Amino acid sequence: MQAVVRWAGNASFVGESGSGHAVTMDGPPDHGGQNLGVRPMEMILLGLGGCASFDVMSILTKSRQAVTACHVELDAERADGVPSPFTKIHMHFVVTGTDIKEAQVKRAVELSATKYCSASIMLEAAGVELTHDYEIRAAE
Question: Which pTM was predicted?
Fold first, then answer.
C-alpha cells in the first residue's frame, strides 16, 4: 500500500492513495489553515470508522442479515498538550434493517474489534482504549 501527501500551501495538504483517490487535509485558521478539509487526526478517526464498518457490514452480509443502513458514531478523547494522541475512542454502531438478529450484530462488532479491523488493533496496540456498542433499528 502506498500513498503520497503533498503540501498545497499554508497548512493545507493533499493526500493521494495508491488507488488514485485524493483527499484534502487542512488545519484550523488559528494554525495557518483555511479549514478547507479534514484535520489529519480526523482522518485517523474516519479511517478507524471506515475499517470497522467495512468489517461489520461484510460479516452481516455473509450472515444474510437484511441490513438497509449502517453507520458508526465515533467519540474520541485526546491527551492534553503536545503531542495529543488519542487516549479513548468509543464506536457506536447503528444497524438498521428488517428482522436483524442481535446475536449477529454483536458477533460482527466483536469480530471487527478483536480480529479483523487493522485500524482498531493498531490503535489498541498503541495504548488507545477502544470501546464499542451497537443498537438495532427497524427499517421503516
Answer: 0.91
Q: Going from the N-terminus, what domains does the chain have, and what CATH number goes with each?
A: 1-38 (2.20.25), 40-138 (3.30.300.20)
CA distances, 133 to each of 65, 85, 88, 92, 140 (Å): 18, 23, 14, 5, 22
At a CB cut-off of 8 Å and minimum separation 6, what does 83 contact? none
* DSSP one-letter code for 83: S
Is 37:44 a contact under the CB 8 Å cutoff? no
Interhelix angle for 102-111 vs 40-62, to 10°? Answer: 130
Residues 1-31 pLDDT 10s: 899 999 998 999 999 999 999 999 999 999 8
Cα–Cα distance for residue pair 3/22, rounded to 1 Å: 10
- In the predicted model, is pLDDT for residue 140 greater than 90? no
